[in-house]
Design brief:
single chain; 166 residues; alpha+beta; Immunoglobulin-like; 3-stranded antiparallel sheet; 17% helix; elongated
């Protein structure tokens, strides 16, 4: 009996692991959530020393279903002109966003804008009169809404913009 129980448990575990690795489909037609949720970014082109970097994400849901977006998955990274990561002064491993709830539900064909402001000079070494690339990214591969209803935006996308430090 224990051997049969172990084989059944192993099959269930393998089946669950395989379904977690598949991309999440929005409908029976096979719509991919990462493709049907569109992401646009915006930020200033010029940044004065010791000022905050203001950036925004515009998320448009073109899926046929509602989609949950995890707000703690938005962030930025600074790169030099050769697209290599800039020298990091401090690693911020967790940033709590009090402005937004943990998850935001976006209806089909609706658009939602998230606005953030962070101190890039606190986290990265950036020199005056220099050009950098700011990578504005959404990275969520594991956080799902606890209700289990609707879809979750489980994707990683990074859009880059040129940034000049005065």
């Amino acid at each position: 009996m224990p051997a049969l129980y172990m084989r059944i448990l192993l099959k269930i575990t393998l089946l669950l692991a395989a379904t977690c690795l598949l991309p999440q489909k929005a409908t029976a037609t096979g719509e991919d959530v990462c493709e049907c949720v569109k992401l646009k970014v915006g930020s200033a082109d010029t940044l004065a020393p010791n000022t905050y970097l203001d950036y925004r994400f515009s998320v448009k849901n073109t899926c046929k279903s509602k989609v949950w977006v995890n707000t703690s998955s938005f962030g930025f990274a600074i790169y030099d002109q050769n697209n290599k990561p800039a020298r990091r002064l401090r690693e911020l491993t967790f940033v709590k966003r009090y402005k937004y709830p943990e998850f935001v539900l976006i209806e089909p064909n609706a658009e939602y804008e998230f606005k953030f402001s962070d101190d890039a000079f606190f986290e990265y070494k950036m020199d005056r009169n220099s050009k950098y690339i700011v990578g504005l990214r959404f990275a969520n591969k594991k956080y799902k809404h606890p209700s289990g209803r609707n879809l979750n935006f489980l994707c990683t996308k990074e859009l880059k913009r040129l940034l000049y430090v005065k």
